Amino acid sequence: MKKQALQPLLKPNDALALERTRLANERTFLAYFRTFIVFLSSGFAILKLSALSEIISVGYFLMILSPLLLAVGIGRFLYVRRQLRRYYP
User: What is the pLDDT along the chain (89 residues), one digit of tens a residue?
Assistant: First the structure.
């Protein structure tokens, strides 16, 4: 009910800009998630393929970096969503 009550206070341009920001936040999170998947699968492939034994340290690095990257993406997504809800409920 709050959203309906506050909706007339926003100009149509402002409401559309807010929706674009929400959608951009989701797209940014999905980009972080895609990068996480690529890093994780690349690290796993490097570790499992014997032909790539020279770069096994890169595989370990990617396997360690991928969850950290996902954590940053989730944290950023939640932060932006919280800020949007705080200023524009």
Answer: 455 554 557 788 888 989 999 999 999 999 999 999 999 999 999 999 989 889 999 999 999 999 999 999 999 999 999 999 988 87
Domain tally for the chain?
1
Residue 29 located in a structural domain: yes
Give SS3 for 48.
Answer: helix
User: In terms of Cα–Cα distance, which of 84, 62, 72, 78 is closest to 31?
Assistant: 72
Q: Which domain holds residue 18?
A: 14-87
